[in-house]
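Hello,

Following up on my earlier ticket. Below are the two sequence lines again, exactly as submitted.
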Amino acid sequence: MADANEKYKLARKIAERKVGFIRHAAIYLLVIAGLAIINNVTYTGYQWWLWPALGWGIGVVSHFLSAFLYQSGALVDRVAKRELEKMDESNKS
Amino acid sequence: MSRTRVSGVDIAGIALGIVVIAIVIGSVVLLARGRLFSFQWAGPDPKQFWHDRPFQHGGLREEKDEQVTGAFTTIEIRNIAGEIDIHGGSQDGVQIHSVKTAMFPAAMENLTVAVENQGSKLLIEERHDAGFFMSAGTVSFTITLPKGIKAIQAHSVSGSITVRNVPPGIDQNLTTISGSISTDGARDLDASSTSGSVQFASAGDRLEVHSVSGSVQGRIEALGRGGSVNVRTVSGSVDVEAPTSLDAIISLRSVSGGVSCDLPLTAAQQGRNTLDGKIGSGSGRVEITTTSGPITIRKM
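Thanks for your patience. The regenerated structure is below:
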């Protein structure tokens, strides 16, 4: 029961990270699209909106990597689980 | 054999992630717009590439001489960062000597000098495309004027403007943001600089000099009957020479700077930072105001 609860907590953590990224990316796309429209409606020459698209984009990409590819804390969780198992084994012996 | 399940959130998240990565890469490419790359691809031959590296010979430089003939009465020069040097000559047309300098070959190609014949007016302008390296190059102009020019208009952002040895009787309109202005022999003069200094000599009916932090130093050689002089600065000092034959009402006003006048004023009223008076019959008007800069009028 405790194990299932722990699993659910982990699953929820991962889900929160993924949904958090989707929210971040959607806001990014909306704001950058708005800036691009403002830029080109007021002045068609210099495309200044590319600077926030680049700067903020780097932040969104790193959020994407942490949410989908590198799940920070997963290694720590695995090590902690192993430590718990070791403790259980030593208590039994 | 276990199969990894992919949820809708995973698909949406990965799709969004790919879109954002594409935007970031696209931004880098569009911002550079080939300029960074053209700098690296200066030539397919590696020897040529190293030869073209601007840092080896302190930047790229291109000089051009051009002569434009026409019945011009007005010359307008618009520049961004390079100097504008205007002087008088005896030739028939307008001689334009332009020096382009840039750090990158692509910036040099991007920089052009436009010369437009607009009837009685000749427009000489520095032009470049907006882009990542939009400010990577400058153009300096040396303009030799023919006879018959009645007005000079010169505008720059950070370059200085110098007008020397031009025929008398030319109206001048000179503006710059951070460069200095130096002119002699102007008839009516309108000079404006934000942080650069202004040096002038004028002999017309109208003199307007504005500066924010730059100092103003000049000579009013003559002022036509009913003419006006208006000099304004914020923190810059004003030091003006004028003849005793000046015929004007004088008004000097400063918020915290001192004021002094060597001219023989009548009906003078001097306050701590103000001076009002009249010289001659008072047909013209000389108004000089500053916020913190001192004001001095000397006898010529």
